[in-house]
């Protein structure tokens, strides 16, 4: 989501006063998916980014189904806050957010994804995706919120 902070870089200068001031910048690569706050070092999303999960089979069968397992507690997608959408062109799937996430309610999620091929005797693989929601941060020029995703 645009404006999502997910990483804070930090540098230190042993000088004093204005000589110790650090300004953060990023390389000018295009498209500019990420930006950094020049004063705080928080890196945030500047343009929409999609993350895909792709499963492939050594047998070459592209028919793979994906399931995001339901959980029993809020931290495991109960009630449903995340869902999968398949991409049939390349056999991948994307994890999407069904509703806004609230740090005050649930600070992290552990999602379990199952990929299974379509066959007479199906084979399945699992992965765990960790989603950490960060608290509202007051940053120079406004406020930002964010989350981070870590695959297992």
From TrEMBL:
Q: Which SUPFAM superfamilies match?
A: Cadherin-like (SSF49313)
Record has Transmembrane helix as a keyword: yes
Q: Identify the SMART domains for this entry.
A: CA
Alphabetical keyword list? Calcium, Cell adhesion, Membrane, Repeat, Transmembrane, Transmembrane helix
Q: Where is the Cadherin domain?
A: 3-135
The coiled-coil regions, if any, are none
Predominant place of localization = membrane
Keyword Glycoprotein present in the record's keywords: the answer is: no
List locations, semicolon-separated. Membrane
This protein's source sits in the domain of life called Eukaryota
Q: Where is the signal peptide?
A: none
PANTHER family, per the entry? DESMOGLEIN FAMILY MEMBER, NEURAL-CADHERIN
What's the name of the protein?
Answer: Cadherin domain-containing protein
What is the species of this protein?
Goodea atripinnis
């Amino acid at each position: 989501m645009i404006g999502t902070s997910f990483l804070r870089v930090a540098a230190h200068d042993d000088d004093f006063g204005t000589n110790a001031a650090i300004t953060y910048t990023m390389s000018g690569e295009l498209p500019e998916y990420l930006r950094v706050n020049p004063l705080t070092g928080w890196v945030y999303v500047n343009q929409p980014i999609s993350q895909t999960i792709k499963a492939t089979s050594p047998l070459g069968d592209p028919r793979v189904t994906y399931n995001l397992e339901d959980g029993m507690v809020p931290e495991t997608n109960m009630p449903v806050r995340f869902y999968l959408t398949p991409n049939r062109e390349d056999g991948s799937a994307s994890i999407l957010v069904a509703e806004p996430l609230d740090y005050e309610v649930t600070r992290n999620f552990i999602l379990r994804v199952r990929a299974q091929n379509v066959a007479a005797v199906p084979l399945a693989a699992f992965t765990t995706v960790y989603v950490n929601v960060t608290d509202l941060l007051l940053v120079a020029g406004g406020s930002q919120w964010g989350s981070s995703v870590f695959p297992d």
